[in-house]
């Protein structure tokens, strides 16, 4: 019986080493798991008291489910805190998400430039997950509207707050993996299909191609180059 216990302990220890070596993101959970096992086998509790004694510490909770520290997010829409635990922010604000354990609501830090926050600005709290997108991603771009329909794009662009040259890029309704450019030209909206080459480049006409949509937008913001108008400000996003 003693040999079986030693063998089980050895296998458990080896499994823990394997998880920590090959799954770095699980390290905190592995440490928590073995701490709990140690407590149940007569070791120490979270308070350091012996489990065989009269003093028993509080139950040990698993660590928060966190995201990588290098992962940053950008606010897409304005949000005004509704409770004292919420965090207010404006479009374009950068945030660092610390905890994603609550579905739909993430715990985050507001990242401020040069450490200067707006007067009375809270710097940590809960945010609605669908109000942000990963930094440097296409979803974080102010001109990208995702999978909206052609008719909805026209409604956005013909809003009284937009002007000629306002534009947005959306996912193509008919061609999966491709995009469409919608541009306001006076009282109308023109649509252009953004095609993909075999190497992944983007183009409207093969005469000029682009490695990224950012390069595409930059080019047509400087010159209309065949479009109805030169691209102006991105269409305003409304949640």
From TrEMBL:
Domain SH3: 68-137
Domain of life: Eukaryota
Annotated ranges, domain SH2: 143-235
SUPFAM superfamilies: SH2 domain, SH3-domain
A matching Pfam family: SH2
Stretches that traverse the bilayer: none
Gene Ontology molecular function terms on file: ATP binding; non-membrane spanning protein tyrosine kinase activity
InterPro entries (UniProt xref): Grb2-like (IPR043539), SH2 (IPR000980), SH2_dom_sf (IPR036860), SH3-like_dom_sf (IPR036028), SH3_domain (IPR001452)
Top-tier EC class: transferase
Record's keyword terms, sorted: ATP-binding, Kinase, Nucleotide-binding, SH2 domain, SH3 domain, Transferase, Tyrosine-protein kinase
Enzyme Commission number, as recorded: 2.7.10.2
Classification via PANTHER family: PROTEIN ENHANCER OF SEVENLESS 2B
Name the record gives this protein: non-specific protein-tyrosine kinase
């Amino acid at each position: 019986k003693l040999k079986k216990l030693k063998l089980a302990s050895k296998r458990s220890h080896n499994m823990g080493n394997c998880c920590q070596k090959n799954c770095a993101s699980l390290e905190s959970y592995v440490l928590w798991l073995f701490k709990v096992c140690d407590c149940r086998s007569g070791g120490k509790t979270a308070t350091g008291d012996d489990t065989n004694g009269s003093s028993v510490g509080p139950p040990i909770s698993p660590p928060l489910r966190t995201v990588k520290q290098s992962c940053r997010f950008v606010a897409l829409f304005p949000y005004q805190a509704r409770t004292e635990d919420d965090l207010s922010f404006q479009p374009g604000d950068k945030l660092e998400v610390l905890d994603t354990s609550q579905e739909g609501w993430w715990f985050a830090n507001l990242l401020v430039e040069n450490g200067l926050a707006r007067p009375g600005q809270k710097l940590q709290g809960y945010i609605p997950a669908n109000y942000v997108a990963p930094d440097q991603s296409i979803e974080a771009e102010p001109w990208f509207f995702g999978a909206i329909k052609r008719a909805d794009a026209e409604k956005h662009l013909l809003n009284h707050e937009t002007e000629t040259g306002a534009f947005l890029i959306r996912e193509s309704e008919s061609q999966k993996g491709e995009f469409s450019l919608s541009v306001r030209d006076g009282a109308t909206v023109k649509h252009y299909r953004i095609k993909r080459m075999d190497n992944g480049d983007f183009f409207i006409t093969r005469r000029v191609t682009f490695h990224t949509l950012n390069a595409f937008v930059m080019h047509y913001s400087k010159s209309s180059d065949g479009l109805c108008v030169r691209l102006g400000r991105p269409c305003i996003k409304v949640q």
